[in-house]
From TrEMBL:
It comes from the Eukaryota. Belongs to the CHCHD7 family. PANTHER family: COILED-COIL-HELIX-COILED-COIL-HELIX DOMAIN-CONTAINING PROTEIN 7. One of its GO terms (biological process) is mitochondrial respiratory chain complex assembly. InterPro entries: COX23 (IPR051040), Cys_alpha_HP_mot_SF (IPR009069). This is Coiled-coil-helix-coiled-coil-helix domain-containing protein 7. Keywords: Disulfide bond, Mitochondrion. The keyword Mitochondrion applies. The gene is CHCHD7. It comes from Catharus ustulatus (Russet-backed thrush). One of its GO terms (cellular component) is mitochondrial intermembrane space. Its main location: mitochondrion. It is found in: Mitochondrion intermembrane space. Gene3D superfamilies: CytochromE C oxidase copper chaperone.
Amino acid sequence: MSRHAKKLRDHDINPCVAETDATTKCMNDNNYNKDMCTDYFLKYKNCRKFWHEIMMQRKRNGVKPEMPAAEERKKILESMGKPY
């Protein structure tokens, strides 16, 4: 596996690994018919948008690291009740 692929699978770097996996599984299960996986694509898009907004807010506030670690993200989601 390439370094780039490993980074995408790292839960501390990519907050949407589960959504990525669900989308890929749906595509595989439905013979790559995108129409069958619209909900999965939407969940992935909303996940990326949510964490991007968190990251930008932390950047504006001078918080490092800009992307919260996996444990911190888990606490954020628990406190908000999975917003996407």
